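Thread: Newbie trying to understand structure tokens

Hi all, I'm a second-year student working on a class project, and my supervisor (Dr. K.) asked me to get a predicted structure for one chain before our next meeting. I've only ever worked with sequences, so writing a 3D structure as a token string is new to me. If someone could post the tokens and maybe explain what I'm looking at, I'd be very grateful. Here's the chain:
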Amino acid sequence: MAFEANFDGLVGPTHHYGGHSFGNVASTGNAGQAANPRAAALQGLAKMKALADLGYRQGVLPPQQRPAVWELRKLGFAGSDETVIASAARNAPQLLASVYSASSMWTANAGTVSPSADTGDARVHFTVANLQNKFHRAIEHEQTARTLRAIFRDDARFAVHDALPMHPAFGDEGAANHTRFAKRYDEPGVAFFVYGRQHWGGQTEPQKYPARQTLEASQAVARLHGLSDAHVVYAQQNPAVIDAGVFHNDVIAVGNLDVLFCHEQAFLDRHATYRALDASLGGLRVVEVPLSEVSVADAVKSYLFNSQLLDRGDGSMRLVVPEECRNHAAVWRWLQAHVQPGAAISELLVFDLKQSMQNGGGPACLRLRVALTDAEAAAVVPGVWMNERLFAMLGTWVEKHYRDRLAEADLADPQLPREVQTALDELTALLGLGSIYPFQLN
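---
Reply by user tm_fold:
Sure, no problem. This is what the structure looks like when written as tokens:
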């Protein structure tokens, strides 16, 4: 037997609104506001626990060590950690905010995952995303690889590949631009890669915001995972929606098993995309939201499609959406009319994820999907699986270590890095991960 597990990113203690992500309108629009790291982490934990209570296998991925002082040293800042931080605060505050970013919470960008049913060597493959388009995210990949190897440490069952070369030709944003379709989780499926541009090829590209995922990166991941060409589909994202703020495909489309839920304008050639997926899978159910009912702007503001499709076991799906969907009349009207018994999407779950949403990440951003067999799940480090005990321990841990207010000015506080290291040292013990952070390895 096999199933889909979700590994959610635990929001880190330096969660703040730095506005680092050009092209993500929520991120840039809320820049400079004070954040609440404690509330952010508790909101994420509440979602994890609720889905675990429904019977879904739910894992936790820990945050990264921040600030990444070692990156500041590479850029010419010298002295003790306190001196480096103070100097950056005076001379390059935006740079300091970047190395404090808690963006690893959005684990849909941690990497791309292919289950053992699809890969050439029958192992679960991960390729860590390089995230080279944004500095604050490009510094994540080394820690992401360490974390994944600590959790999925059985080399006989799991393979974790390092990030692709740090070059614009291989811009890779991970599972945010990848969906795996299948009739069953334990049967060979179809890997669906969505790209924003082709580095060598001269296709139409967005004009306002960058296309972060390249076709060349997607092709490289497929090769690394040993995927069959007959079970891979590539499609270009509509450049117009990237310019409207759809910085990843998971802001405009989501899929699970044989269901694709998307906006009419998600893909450059939607009919060709649907036909290719249907032919490769042997039957695809498309739930398409027309432009006449929900605008792209409302889709971006509400994060209607940055949602989770969860298998109910009866042929239909649960849809997990953020509370913001209630606040957009057209979006809520569409959901009320179309999510109902007997439909492909038959149930709606709404969660308050305001702290993440204000930084540009919804339910889908917060999770990395990993299809596992029972034997593979048993090989995962057991401490990361959500249950009553872990939920209680992590809640207590957050209340103990997280601030309830963090503004950019607070990033100059020399006490904050010490607070983070104390918290992460306890967390790795709670999760049973061993030493994975730079301060633990030095």
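A couple of things are worth pointing out once you decode it. The chain has one domain: 2-441. The mean pLDDT is 95. Feel free to ask follow-ups in this thread.
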